[in-house]
Amino acid sequence: MITRRTFVSVSFGVAASAILAGCGGSGSSSSTAASSTNVLTVAATPDPHAKILNEFAAPLLAEQGIELQVTEFTDYVQPNEVVFNGELDANYFQHINYLKDYDEQNNEDLVSVAKIHYEPFGIYAGKSSDLTKIADGAEIAVPNDPTNEARALLLLQQAGIITLKNPDDLGATPNDIADNPHKVTFREIEAAATPRALEDVDFAAINGNYAIEAGLHASDALVLEEASGIAFEEYANIICTTPAKEKDERILALVAVLQTEDFKKYLSDNFGEDVLPAF
Fold first, then answer.
1. I need a surface site. Which of 42, 147, 155, 197 has the fewest CB within 10 A?
2. pLDDT score for 37
């Protein structure tokens, strides 16, 4: 069952810390003038997205008079739904490839406003600890959404566990495996559940945000995808909204404060190699 945890942080005054998001692309004081309201509502998964919004973006945006209200979700479906139906202004939780697939599958037209960060995707030890000595018939948990399952298979190919018919297939499924010498099997489950599956499977492919929530780090992974090229192009996490709000100055304001050298330092200080800048 999809669970939802909602948490809204509201500013208590101009000088108080409000949880805000939005900032003019140019950073000028006119960034809020064209907006009908200085409240920006954003859907996010808890770590690292909501934490970033609340800890880093909020104080900076408060200085510009923009109040950010953050609603947290623990799944990958609802954050897009609430933006598409107009319940919230934007979201910050997904990578570009996931958004492309979501729009196609749901006949929607949500758009990426900007790349913000990248979370390394890794294979983590469960009942087995050595991926290089994987046993025949080993079971591996993988996310069941199309883009992240393909991401897991590409990583397993990188590790030499399987070979795909098309080695660059961003939409691969287990049916697209050309060679599986160890006859590994796949437990296809919701991405949020992959960390919990570790006690029951040999290995699990886990998205960076869910790894962080489970107390796992990039350094704990047995193998990480190569953080360059296709990873940054397809799996960078973005600020997403509707076409009608793509130029909304509150949203551009949010992008502006999240694409600075100060933000890069914040990521390094708070997340190390778990969350990397993607701009």
1. 197
2. 62
